Amino acid sequence: MNDAATATMPGLSAHPSTMTRATRFSPRQVATLAAKELRDRLRNRWVLAVALVFAVFSLLITYAGGAQQGTVGVRSLEFTITSLVSLVIYLVPLIALLLGFDAVVGERERGSLDLLLALPITRLELLLGKYLGLAGALALAMLGGLAVVGVVLGRQFGSAGWFHYGGFVFTSVLLGLAFLSLAVMLSVVARDRTRASGLAIALWFLFVLVFDLGLLGLLVASGGRWGGDVFPYLLLLNPADIFRILNVFSLDDMRRVFGLAAIVPPALAQPWLLGSAMAAWIVAPLALASWRFKP
Fold first, then answer.
1. What are 154-183's pLDDT values in tens digits?
2. Backbone torsions φ then ψ of 25, nearest 5 degrees
3. What Cα–Cα distance (Å) separates residue 183 from each residue in 54, 66, 84, 275, 287?
4. Cβ of 16: how many Cβ atoms within 10 Å?
5. How far apart (Å, rounded) are the C-alpha atoms in residues 108 and 236?
6. Contact predicate 180/100, CB 8 Å
7. Distant-in-sequence, close-in-space partners of 267: CB < 8 Å, separation ≥ 6
8. pTM, whole model, 2 decimals?
9. How many of the other CB atoms lie within 10 Å of CB of 162?
10. What's the mean pLDDT when you consider all of the chain?
11. Which residue of 82, 154, 165, 228 lies most exposed, with the fewest beta carbons within 10 A?
């Protein structure tokens, strides 16, 4: 959002008579900011580009995921969703972090943050407006790209395919929103875009690559004596693992594929508990960002 763009937002007039500090939260202001952020992403073709990336990779995995076993084409619903879970875990967090890492720090470096805060909006409204606009762009891109595979699975497996794939897509969007929330938090606490981008990449490595390896290394090194009882609950500290468990336990065959049925206790595999944990990963970073947000 550039300096001139603020003058085009219908709900944010910069007329001197309105240049007073806002003190009450206004959902209308949030909606105006979110719509502007979403229009910017649609205008620069970001949504289209990401949707094409999702569509191409998801179709390749759907039809060529079994090439190593000598088969090409849609094998089974369980195998397809299992393969797509791995794709989402690697791709969605990276896209979400790259999308949101400069949401606030970028405005600060361009000098437009002070101008925005001079308008009759609060910092919370600005933060939520930016987050919701970016979240809308991310969700549209993911839904557009993954819908192609949904059509294929619906024709192949009928209503059962739509039901389970719909749950997979919904949890994929939640995973993206969680990492987008983390990205916005980094954008608030980082001093410049360079540090924010570095922190975003480091966060991707931590949650996607390092976290599980560290837990497994601890279990192997201790021969199962350390962390065995609390290991399943430590997975809640990683939104990518929450996403994996949510999808693995949605189908019985997928539990055996991932080998988590013997590791994750049934009490932890409750959808309401995992859904609450994912919601916490969306809300908590935003709450911290709102607390630390300074012009």
1. 888 877 778 888 999 999 999 999 999 999
2. -70, 130
3. 20, 34, 23, 20, 13
4. 7
5. 33
6. yes
7. 273
8. 0.86
9. 15
10. 83
11. 228
Phi-psi region of 143 (alpha: psi -120 to 50; beta: other; left: phi over 0): alpha
Closest-CA residue to 249 (of 227, 231, 271)? 271
Token look-up 């995973």 returns 175
Query: What pLDDT is recorded for position 233?
Result: 83
Burial label for 26, CB within 10 Å (0-12, 13-18, 19+), is: middle
Across 67-71, 73-77, 236-240, 265-269, the highest mean pLDDT is recorded for 236-240
Q: Which residues of 29-67 are buried (b: 16+ CB within 10 A; e: fewer)?
A: bbbbbbbbbbebbeeeebbeebbeebbebbeebbbebbe
Is residue 272 within 8 A of residue 258, CB to CB? The reply is no
How high is the pLDDT of residue 78?
78
List the structure tokens of 133: 């606009």
Question: Is the separation of the CB atoms in 54 and 141 below 8 Å?
Answer: yes
